[in-house]
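Exercise 3.2. Students should predict the tertiary structure of the chain below and write it as structure tokens, then compare their answer with the key that follows.

Predict this chain's 3D structure.
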Amino acid sequence: MNTVKGSLYVLFQSYKKQIITFWCILFSIVLFSLFIDTFFELHVYSFSIMISIPVYIFSCVMTAKLLNKTLSYFLRLGLSRLQFMLNVGLFFICWSLIGSFMIGCIQKVITSVSEIFIIHPILLLNHSPSFFQTMALDSILLIFFLTAGLLLNVVFYRLGTIGGYSFVGLLGLTTIVTIIFKWYSSLFDFLSNISGFALLSGLLVISTLLYSIITMAMRNASVNPA
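Answer key:
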């Protein structure tokens, strides 16, 4: 238990400055938006703000360098690679729960004191979501983006710069081909016909599978990146 607590503390300290800076910037934007809405009386939903997406992106970027920042340190402390990945997984869960709670609280405050329209992915599934429904979606999406960022980090860590950028290029090429041949339309039709619960469950399963693949890829990883 002490090892887990210590690992979570070290992981947080590794990103403490970035986390504080990000949330300060986000809070500043929110306060500025409330100021504009209050003093310029924009009460016809002509003013909107997005809280969740920046948190998703920050989480993905944050984990894109996690191995380079922390793996060698934990290995020197005597942790195995499996223990390291388990602790990172717990850190992801804690971060997603805290992040989703903060997103929900910020949105609740904004809607309580102003008429600013909140842009959020859950509106695609439910036009009047509850606080806990929003928090559930944010938690799962945060886990997904954290895992996606770590996957990108693993690719660069194991395959080096050339292999990493080749992987990114392959993803970009796949996206372009999907757009050209309009394969995305079938995906949109499928997503529009499934329930929100099924979508959240699917994202959680995908995130779990991705993390399992990452864990297996790190079993024999070198202390130093390729």
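Discussion points: The first strand starts at residue 48 and ends at 50. The mean pLDDT is 85.
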